[in-house]
Amino acid sequence: MIGTIAKFESGALLRSPQTWAVFAVIAAIFGYLFLQSLEEFLKVQPSLALQDHPPGLTGYLSARFLATLAPLFSVLGPLFAMRSFSDEFRHQTMALWQSSPISNLSLVLGKFVGVLIPLTLLALLAVVMPAAMGFMVNIDIATLLLSAVGLLLVAASCAAIGVYFSSLTKQPMIAIVASLGVVTLLWLLGGASFTNPAMLALQQFSITNHLSGFFQGYLQSKDVLYFVLLTALFVALTVIRLGSLRNSGHQ
Amino acid sequence: MPSDSTPLLQASDLTRMVSTTAVVDNVSLSLQRGEILGLLGLNGAGKSTTLKMLAGVLTPDAGQISIAGHSLLDDPMAAKQQIGFLPDQPPVYPDMSVAAFLKLSAQLRRVPNNAIQKQVNTIMGRCELSSVAKKRIGKLSKGYQQRVGLAQALIHKPAVALLDEPSNGLDPQQMQSMRTLITEVAEHSCVIFSTHLLSEVTAICNRIAVMHDGKLVHNQRADENLDQLQNLFNQLVQKQSGSAVT
Lengths: 251, 246
Prior knowledge:
The complex is a heterodimer of chains A (251) and B (246). By secondary structure, chain A is an all-alpha fold. Chain A is 80% helix and 0% strand. Chain A starts with a helix and ends with a helix. Helix content of chain B is 35%, strand content 26%.
C-alpha cells in the first residue's frame, strides 16, 4: 500500500509543471556550480600537488561541489513536501484516505517516499556530473556515492519536516515557511559558538555537525543515525497529527 | 460474510461533541442487506458528522460501530474494507483522469490486482462514465464529478455504502440514474444516503431517519407513518426559517 501511495504522490509531483520548472532551475544551478568547482580545481591543482596528501578530483568535487548542494537539498525537501497534506485539506480529498483501509503510518510513509522520489532523481543528477568525469580521469565512485547518500539523508529529513508541517495547515506557503524555519535553525545551530554546556549539547542537533563526513569520504554511524532519527521523529509527529484529525475533525 | 439476518451496519449510541455541544447525540442505527436508509435533516442537523463517523473519518466521542461484523474502532482495517464513502464534496483529484483515479480508488480499497481493471470498467459503465474515462476530472462538469465520487465509493462493492448528498449537482435525468444505481447497489449491501429533500428519500428508501439538532427524531420503515413524517419535517422546516430547504 505504501508503494501505491508513493506512486500517487510522486505522480502528482511529476505531473505538475512547477516541479519541472524547479528541476530545470536546479539543473542549471548544478551545472553552474559544477563547472565553477571544476575550474577552481584546475586553478589550485599545482598547489595541491605540493601537499603530502592532496585531495583528488573526486575528493575536491565532493567537498566543494556536492557539499555546497546540501543546503539546497534541505530547501528542496520541504518544497516538494509542502503540498503533500495541505493540498488534500484544501481540495477536501482527505476523506478518500481516511475512509480507506490504510493506516496513518502507511499513508505518511507513502507520501514521504513519494516526495523522496524526485529528490532522489535530483541527487542522482548532482552525482552524475562528477561521475561523468570518469570517462577522462579516475573517479572514486565510493566517495561520490557517499556524497549522494549525504544529500539524500539531508533531503529526506528536511522532507519529513515539510510533510509534518503540511499536515498542520491547508496553506502550502505556511507549511514551507514553517519548515524552512526549523531547517534554518538546524543549520544555524552548527555555526554558533556557544560556551554554555546546555547550548553546546543543543549544538549536537545541528545538521552541519553530522553532514561533513559524507563529503569527506568517511561514514559514521552516528551521523546516519542522526538523520534517520530526525526523519523518524517528524514522520511519527505526522502520524500523531493525522490521528488527532480524526478526533478534532479540524483540517 | 455475515448471514442475511446479521446487520451489515450497527451503530449504537454514537455521540460527537464540539466543545460542550453534542453535534451528534446518542444516535443508534442498524441496517441489514437490502436496506436503503434515507437520512433526512436540515443543514446542521448532524447528518454529515454521523456519516463521517460511520465511515471512520471521525472518531466518535462515545458509541460503537460495527461494519459487517467488524468493529470500526477495534479493527478499522477490516471494517473499512467494507465501507464505501462519498462525502458531501466528492474527493477527486482534478489533474487525474477518471480511469486513473478509479484505479487508485480500487487499489486503496484493496481490490485484488487482477480484478482492478474489470471493476473500473464495470463501475464506469454503471455510473455512465465510460465516455469520459480518459478525461481529466477537473475538466468535467459538477454532475460528472459527483458521479466519479460515487464511482470511487462503490468500486469495491462495499457492504455498506455511505453517501452524503449524492444528488448534489445532478440534473433530473442523472438523479434518476443515481437512484437506479443505489437500488442496484442495495441488492447486495446496505446504503445510507443523506439529503435535505423529503421527495428524494420517499422515492427510493425503504427506511427513513430524520435528524434534528444531532438527535435521531424519527427512524421507521418508509411505508409506515408517512403523514407523520411529512408533518414532522414540515415543523422542522418552519422552525429553521430562512433555510434554503425545498
